[in-house]
Amino acid sequence: MKSDIEISRSSALLTIDGLSKLIGAKDGDIEPYGKYKGKLSESFLSSLDDRPSGKLILVTAINPTPAGEGKTTTSIGLADAMRLLGKNTMLALREPSLGPCFGIKGGATGGGYSQIAPMDEINLHFTGDIHAVTAANNLCAALLDNHLHQGNEKKIDIQRIVLKRCLDLNDRALRCITVGNGKSDGPIREDGFSITVATELMAILCLSEDLRDLKERLKRMIVAYDINGMPVTAEDIKASGAMAVLLKDALKPNLVQTLGHTPALVHGGPFANIAHGCNSVRATKTALRLADYVITEAGFGADLGAEKFFDIKCRQAGIRPDACVLVATVRALCYNGGDGTDALKNGICNLGKHIENLKKYGLPVTVALNLFGTEREEDISFVRDYCIERNCRFAVSDVYREGGNGGILLAKEVLKSLEESSDFRLLYSDDLSVKDKIKTIAKEIYGSGNVIFSDNANLEAEIIENSGFGRLPVCIAKTQYSLSDDKSMLGRPEGFDFHIREMYVSSGAGFIVALSGNILTMPGLTSVPAAYGVDVDDEGNITGLY
Questions:
Q1: Which of 149, 205, 234, 277 lies at a 20 to 30 A Cα distance from 223?
Q2: Among 3.40.50.300, 3.30.428.70, 3.40.50.620, 3.90.220.20, what is the CATH number of 4-127+254-417?
Q3: What angle do CA 36, 37, 40 make, to 5 degrees?
């Protein structure tokens, strides 16, 4: 079989002009970024305001192995399959981050014959959106330090600066740094970097409805606190206007395609283990106005991405999904079951918990068993029977090897699920206290017993409530490998203690971040990073990017 990059390059892709016609765009509606990529113009976006919305299908997953379980591949293959069945379908996906591309997971454009393309360009610099977020965030940081240097008019407490600089790469050496060390470059203070896709600025970009909303969110973004404990915002240090300028074009959704020529809006890229894990509100709503069926995804397992998709994105944007697809693999089920011949039977409980969780939101669920080609028929039958016993639809998916044709059975089951009644509801109300929201998520979704707050987290929760932010939803940062906050607790742990060590307000994004366990906002590289295998030959052909 050809490598992913060879498949991507050998396919007869539509030019951006041909792709524009496919979604009904006219001359000038799409701003080209090369031969196969483009951004939707503001005038085109405005022209869609009065169109009705199509059906929204969320693709999520069980707790994955470190290599991932093909959630994006399944999303792409499902969309291609639905188009093969004659359905007007679009994708709304996140942009890949350079961190995983050169780290452990590789790219995020799907795989095999279910890819968005051109995969190398999308996985690398794409249209520059993530670079724009990096620049805007670091401009704000530079203006903040300059404000301190020029006299600190706002009386900022340098021990309570919350804005970090960022870089869209995994680099553990930047987690904790000291700035201002040079002569007259002070004040000297401790600082640090987050990965760009974990920043509040990325969340702001993804949750903004339009440029006006973006500017308002930037103005209220808290960057520090003053010596009296009052918040200092990006507007207070005169940074929000320049930040908006850097993000103006990044706010426009990007149009690309699958190898099966299904249009895809790929826009925004927050991680789900340390951020809210969903593509942009703008891209999702635009796709819903352009197509009868929209396939979107949320990062990592349903305990992270799906919960945040529902309780943060849908809450803020007024979006109502119509159905869910839960991706599982025999590999991940065995991983969750531990060593031994009964690993699959022991690990199937992880799938069961995610089915239960998704049904709490009132949506029909279809389990997609993503095939790697090594599964035994008895294992497939075991998973199928398990799903049927729980009144859950099931289909195998072989879209990596067969493209859309390998997703026909899944597409038919999903279409049947859309005929069922759905009663979408959120997990918790705005009126709950911050700590009670966290307890609700931890107990209902993760299966924990007690939630233990550090002294620091208790104090921060009190400050958040007293400052008027208590009605905001909560974004819990935790490991993706377990339902708990301990990545070694696989399967379906129950009654465990869940630990919250820190909390802070992302006032521009409109949620509260709660850090659990030892989760970090700047990942590190493994002993053998994927970057070791990436290269380019004399003709410009890239190898090792997947």
A1: 277
A2: 3.40.50.300
A3: 135
* Number of Cβ atoms within 10 Å of the Cβ of 183: 5
Domain 434-516, CATH: 3.10.410.10
Q: How many residues does the chain have?
A: 546
Could you tell me if 485 and 529 are in contact, meaning their C-beta atoms sit under 8 angstroms apart? no
* Largest separation between any pair of C-alpha atoms in the chain: 71
Q: Kindly give the confidence (pLDDT) of every residue in the chain, 546 residues in length, as a single tens digit, with 9 standing for 90 and above.
A: 344 434 444 458 999 999 999 999 999 999 999 999 999 999 999 999 999 999 999 999 999 998 788 999 999 999 999 999 999 999 999 999 999 899 887 788 999 999 999 999 999 999 999 999 999 999 999 999 999 999 999 999 999 999 999 999 999 999 999 999 887 787 899 999 999 999 999 999 999 999 999 999 999 999 999 999 999 999 999 999 999 999 999 999 999 999 999 999 999 999 888 889 999 999 999 999 999 999 999 989 999 999 999 999 999 999 999 999 999 999 999 999 987 789 999 999 999 999 999 999 999 999 999 999 899 999 999 999 999 999 999 999 999 999 999 999 999 999 999 998 889 999 999 999 999 999 999 999 999 999 999 999 999 999 999 999 999 999 999 999 999 999 999 999 999 999 999 999 999 999 999 999 888 899 999 999 999 999 999 999 998 887
Write down the domain spans for the chain.
4-127+254-417, 129-247, 434-516
Contact 195, 240 (CB under 8 A): no
| The model scores a pTM over 0.90 | yes
129-247 has which CATH code?
3.30.1510.10
Of the candidates 232, 251, 311, 241, which has an alpha carbon nearest to the alpha carbon of residue 277? 311
State in Å, rounded, how far the first CA of the chain is from the last one.
14
- The answer to whether the bond into 529 is cis (omega within 30° of 0) is no
Residues 54-85: b if buried by 16+ CB within 10 A, e if exposed:
bbbbbbbbbbbeeebbbbbbbbbbbbbbbbbe
| Strands 89-93 and 263-266, bridge-based pairing | parallel
Q: Are 22 and 261 in contact (CB under 8 A)?
A: yes
In one-letter notation, the amino acid at residue 542 is: I
Of 308, 373, 333, 289, which Cα lies nearest the Cα of 1? 373
Helices (H) and strands (E) in the chain, counts: 20, 25
> Which residues contact residue 181 at a Cβ distance below 8 angstroms, ignoring those fewer than 6 apart?
188
For strands 393-397 and 511-516, give the pairing.
unpaired
Instruction: Tell me the C-alpha distance between 368 and 384, whole Å.
Output: 10
DSSP-derived letter for residue 542 is E
